[in-house]
């Protein structure tokens, strides 16, 4: 991570779970880190969990990734303060797993998932790429994907969530080709975790015997892919808890 010290990272969905663990890990690794979230006050609260010398490297920015104007304003703020972004972690995501694809009156739930998991991810990636390209930065875009972006489990309803994660899998490859054809050395990586202990997981599952990952495990994966040499691109990293059935 030495080459990223003093560089700028943006993490979406930074108020809890994987996003919160990731902003803390990146700031601790020496990156100027902007945590984007709707609940911006929760990102501010994360500073108290960091060593005093690290806290000034974490910045909270209000942003709902389903709103393009919020995304544009957030990236503009980063540019004004630090010149632009070097690393983007697309972590923001929702599941709405209590609502089935075929349930009545589910339109808003479907749109929420698509707008967050796909459209928001694409718009943030677009703005990050424009920033990197303008400054001739060999940056890195990381998508927090899911194992259900590769295999749809049969034991419960996931709403349209797996479809959006399959989309993230396809978008990772699409972006890799676009970045290659543009003649850049910008990397793009998909990280696909299994079950992670986050707000999206039912409490009963967290307390049960089901193998489960911690958010910090995924943050470690982010540090790993960022720490690879410039000539190495980890295209897909799958992280599962030991004993997972899926």
In short:
This protein has 246 residues and is of the alpha/beta class.
Task: Walk me through this protein's architecture.
This protein is of the alpha/beta class. 42% of the residues lie in helices and 15% in strands. It has helices at 17-28, 40-46, 52-55, 68-82, 107-134, 161-181, 203-207, 215-226, and strands spanning 8-12, 32-37, 58-62, 87-90, 140-144, 187-193, 236-239. A 7-stranded parallel beta sheet has the order 3-2-1-4-5-6-7, sandwiched between helices. α4 runs parallel beside α5 (107-134) and α5 packs parallel to α6 (161-181). The longest helix has 28 residues, at 107-134. The mean pLDDT is 94.
Blueprint (SSEs and pairs):
Blueprint: E1 8-12, H1 17-28, E2 32-37, H2 40-46, H3 52-55, E3 58-62, H4 68-82, E4 87-90, H5 107-134, E5 140-144, H6 161-181, E6 187-193, H7 203-207, H8 215-226, E7 236-239
Parallel strand pairs: 1-2, 1-4, 2-3, 4-5, 5-6, 6-7
Helix pairs in contact: 1-8, 4-5, 5-6
